[in-house]
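Cross-posted from the bioinformatics board.
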Amino acid sequence: DTEVTQTPKHLVMGMTNKKSLKCEQHMGHRAMYWYKQKAKKPPELMFVYSYEKLSINESVPSRFSPECPNSSLLNLHLHALQPEDSALYLCASSQPGRTGELFFGEGSRLTVL
Amino acid sequence: SQQGEEDPQALSIQEGENATMNCSYKTSINNLQWYRQNSGRGLVHLILIRSNEREKHSGRLRVTLDTSKKSSSLLITASRAADTASYFCATGSRGSQGNLIFGKGTKLSVKP
């Protein structure tokens, strides 16, 4: 069982919808990440939060909006997505500042119609 | 951007055989990690080897690192059907603020 919990597990949305993906961890980690993974591809880094501040944005389109309300929660707000944004969205956490082990959630499978 | 390149892209073996996967990378690293992903699931950390280490063991896993060649290998001994998964190497570069860059992965199939 993973200690990083992601909801929902599956999400289907239209291109005009607004939805959010949620991630929660209670390991005391102060770095949290969003990765995007297309089928048969490796995870690609989207955002990094360190001590609740956005530290890395890998040139992600503004239709993806991350939010870190506190040290345990990470959200990804979705608006006006395109069908090509359909993917598995993975949340991870770690101790910040050191490239140590990442703890991943099981992912949210997003389908944009 | 991708840092690591694994080979082979796919590997099919019989239960009980050993599986070897290789990873090459491009820049200086703090460490190299291997992760496993069952189909459509999250990634699970397997092992981390630091840039000043050459070999590391964990159970049936053996990882080697050659920083002069910028390459690493993951050996799974006495494979089991439950080892069927995709395996990714991931590198953390110096000054990278803790984020990892993943390679393309090797899809391992272990037949009973």
